[in-house]
Structure formats: C-alpha cells, structure tokens
C-alpha cells in the first residue's frame, strides 16, 4: 500500500512541545511526516539552521515515521521534489487563522495539487509559541513544561552568551 506522507514545514526556532504535539497527532493520519525546517524565514532566527534541525531531530528521535530535513525556497517546490501532496500546519488560535489562510491559498495558487491541512494542538499548547518561550527564558524563566530539556539547555546557553 502507498504510504501516506506529509510535510510539516516551519521555522522551529526552537521546537516546542506544541510542535511535537502536532507531529504526534499527524502520525495518527500519516505514515510518514517530514518535519521541514526552513533555511530562511521571514522571522529573524535565534538559532542557526543546523541547531534548529538538530534540536528537532533529538526531540523526534523516538517517533517512528518522522524524518527531519531542511529546505530553502518554496515549500510547495520542496513537497513536489519529495512527491508529497500534503502540507501539515498547526492552528492554535483565531490569530493564527488569517496568516495560515493566506499562506494556504497562496500555496494552492502556486501548486493546485498540494493541499494544506490543519490540526489543533492540545489546548495546553494553544497559547505556546517559540517566540513566547524565547522571551520567557531570556528573562530568566524555566521551561514551564513547554520545551524538551535539551532545548531548554540550548536556550539558556544562548542567552548566557549574550
Ligand atoms: P512558521 O515560521 O512557519 O510559522 P513555526 O515554527 O512558528 O514556523 O510554526 C510551524 C507550524 O507549527 C505553524 O503551522 C504553527 O502554527 C505551528 N505551531 C507553532 N507553535 C505551535 C503550538 N504551540 N501548537 C501547535 N502548532 C504550533
């Protein structure tokens, strides 16, 4: 039987339990999920591409069916290159909706054969973002149960160096 595969693209700066919750939910629907870490982002990243990829790899190492890769350029081109037709994205709040809606329709315009599907994380992660956790840790907070230990360690190290 043909494997059901999806791409989960994002900046992952850094990966949080919200992202991981989504990947785990996605595995109920897909046999394989490629977590695709964007080389370039409209956001300034705190972590380098290598660091972001390596943190996602560590966080997903026990999840069967998950691959971690990086991509540059358009996500639809990456999907085509991989022969994958589904883009997985997370919706936390209504505030995510507008941006995600625009992006999904732009991607559809670019490649009509590729569908974006959205999943909602556990409500405990519905207000969690990489930005929020970076701010909290920069100001001296702990991980608040939002990021794996290796990510917390990396974040603390980053902020100590500054
Ligand atoms: P991007 O820069 O592409 O938005 P992010 O790493 O911020 O990259 O997010 C990647 C995807 O993961 C997006 O679809 C985003 O909505 C989703 N996401 C981010 N944080 C969470 C979370 N706490 N719960 C569920 N989905 C999330």
Your description of this structure?
There is one protein chain. By secondary structure, this protein is of the alpha/beta class. 44% of the residues lie in helices and 18% in strands. It has six helices and five strands. It has helices at 17-29, 49-60, 75-82, 94-110, 130-138, 149-161, and strands spanning 5-10, 32-38, 66-71, 86-90, 115-119. A three-stranded parallel β-sheet has the order 1-2-3, with helices on both faces. The chain has a two-stranded parallel ribbon with strand order 4-5. Strand 2 (32-38), helix 2 and strand 3 (66-71) form a beta-alpha-beta unit. The longest helix is centred in the middle third of the chain and has 17 residues, at 94-110. It is globular and about 45 Å long. The mean pLDDT is 94. Bound molecules: adenosine-5'-diphosphate (ADP). Adenosine-5'-diphosphate (ADP) is lined by residues 10-12, 16, 18-19, 22, 41, 43, 89-90, 92, 96, 121, 125, 128-130.
Key terms for this structure?
alpha/beta, three-stranded parallel sheet, binds adenosine-5'-diphosphate
Distance between the termini: 51 Å
**Total helical elements:** 6
- What is the CA-based Rg, rounded? 15 Å
| Heteromolecules bound | adenosine-5'-diphosphate
Described by the principal axes of the CA atoms, the overall outline is globular
The computed structural class is: alpha/beta
Largest sheet, if any? Answer: 3 strands, parallel
> Which regions contain 5 or more consecutive residues with pLDDT less than 50?
none
DSSP, total strands: 5
Strand content: 15-25%
Q: Going across the biggest sheet, name each strand in turn.
A: 1-2-3
Helicity level, as a percent range?
Answer: 40-55%
Sequence of secondary-structure elements: EHEHEHEHEHH
Overall pLDDT: 94
């Amino acid at each position: 039987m043909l494997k059901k595969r999806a791409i989960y693209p994002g900046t992952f700066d850094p990966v949080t339990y919200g992202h991981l919750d989504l990947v785990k939910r996605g595995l109920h629907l897909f046999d394989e999920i490629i977590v695709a870490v964007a080389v370039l982002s409209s956001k300034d990243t705190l972590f380098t591409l290598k660091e972001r990829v390596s943190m996602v790899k560590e966080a997903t190492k026990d999840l069967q069916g998950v691959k971690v890769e990086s991509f540059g350029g358009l996500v639809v081109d990456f999907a085509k290159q991989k022969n994958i037709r589904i883009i997985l994205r997370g919706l936390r709040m209504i505030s995510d909706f507008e941006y995600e809606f625009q992006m999904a329709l732009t991607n559809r315009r670019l490649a009509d054969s590729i569908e974006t599907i959205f999943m909602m994380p556990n409500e405990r992660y519905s207000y969690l973002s990489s930005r929020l956790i970076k701010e909290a840790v920069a100001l001296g907070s702990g991980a608040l149960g939002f990021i794996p230990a290796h990510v917390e360690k990396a974040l603390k190290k980053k902020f100590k160096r500054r």
